Amino acid sequence: MDNREMKDSGQAVALAFLGGAVAGVIAGLLLAPKSGEESRGTLKGYARKGEEDILERAKEARAALDEAIERGKHFIAEKTANAEAAVKAGRETMKEKMDRYSS
N or C: which end of the chain has fewer CB atoms below 10 A? Predict the structure, then answer.
């Protein structure tokens, strides 16, 4: 198995674990010997915390994506400049050789 497959597999296991944990928490809250109002309040609190966590992670992911895009832009600009320089050098060399042989 290559590194990417192992990473994807690890992410799947982590996601399954978190999904099971969330389902367990919800089932525990719904089956707990609390009043409906207390349970709903607890669920709302967990939902708010989950929302905050998701928003924070989305901001972090967005920042990482923006950074990766910038690195990609710099990489492409550098490689484009290198390719243009190589083409220019090739043209100049070709012109010199043509001038030499036509003289």
Answer: C
